[in-house]
């Protein structure tokens, strides 16, 4: 792919370095960009898509946005769908291996991944390839030759491998093949730059070594930070329930965004939005200004995120509804209706389960005991409390879940 409209190297580097944790090595990236500028040939920018996680959140968007920035600069974005490597299971950053998927499961998840990722990437300019295209064609002789190019000592430099080895936690031999398979992806597409989270640094570096072994110029590594979730403690994850999904409703994105700690406001603007460098500087100054309430800056972040994944109008409506519910203590205009037939009375736990607001009786009890349940505006704290079922009764669970009961 040729492009004769590249902007100057310094301007490209300013955008590329925004929010990045590490560029390894930076001088090689500059040389690649200089060559690209001279020849008019776009760089191949690689990002591996993990199809074991089909639901994307802002944490995933961080590295996707970096790929989109390279795309804006005129380079070729290549999304590698790990449909073959998903059958191995990658233990990156985990104490136990990630469960492998069947080929069909990986394919289905990858479809869902792309539907969401296309909200960030330019659909027409993104090259999507499945690594089964080349990995499934390798025979046992090919795998032996590949394995001979990397030592066990080097493999044990990876933190999670070395920690598990020292702790006596089993490591299956096939797990050593994961970073080698990922490296073959870089060989197959002749990757110039590979993107990933900081927890993927080792795997990305293996790609550099294997590319050399196959006579290619090694790729440059660019890692992005792992976004801390809404709890302000752990990295964003569905399993920690501290995530903001990019496919969630406007009101969910808005409400969750307002729940992040003040010290993460700038980070979210920098890593999860497309505001300019100048706007970022203004945001930093506002956050340092004691006369400005951080809540107001957070509201602008919430509006921005909703507008990015929905629309400006949706952002406006989400803010108005939030104010109606939480500031004016009102009820949303559109709430789900639950129809109950031949029921005059239900214990609060059963009512919560009927509304689908808890996956189990234990979780429903926890919500009641924590003071997160109310009926017609009256808080319910007794898990045995019987609720008289009348038409139009309003059940509220947590901060944003409402249901109207119809008889």
Largest sheet: 6 strands, mixed
Report the CATH architecture of the largest domain: 3-Layer(aba) Sandwich
> Strands of the biggest beta sheet: in what spatial order?
1-6-5-2-3-4
Query: Total strand count, please?
Result: 13
Helix proportion:
40-55%
Broad shape: globular
The fraction of residues assigned to DSSP E strands is 5-15%
Q: Which whole number gives the mean pLDDT?
A: 90
* Domains, number: 3
Concise synopsis of the structure shown:
This protein is α/β, with parallel strands linked by helices.
What's the SSE blueprint?
Elements: H1 9-17, E1 22-24, H2 26-39, E2 44-49, H3 58-72, E3 76-81, H4 103-117, E4 126-130, H5 132-135, H6 140-147, H7 152-155, H8 159-167, H9 173-189, E5 193-197, H10 201-213, E6 220-224, H11 250-257, H12 265-272, H13 277-288, H14 294-309, H15 312-327, E7 337-339, E8 345-347, H16 348-355, H17 361-369, E9 373-375, E10 378-379, E11 386-388, E12 393-397, E13 401-406
Parallel strand pairs: 2-3, 2-5, 3-4, 5-6, 7-13
Antiparallel strand pairs: 1-6, 8-11, 9-10, 9-12, 12-13
Helix pairs in contact: 9-10, 11-14, 11-15, 12-14, 14-15, 16-17
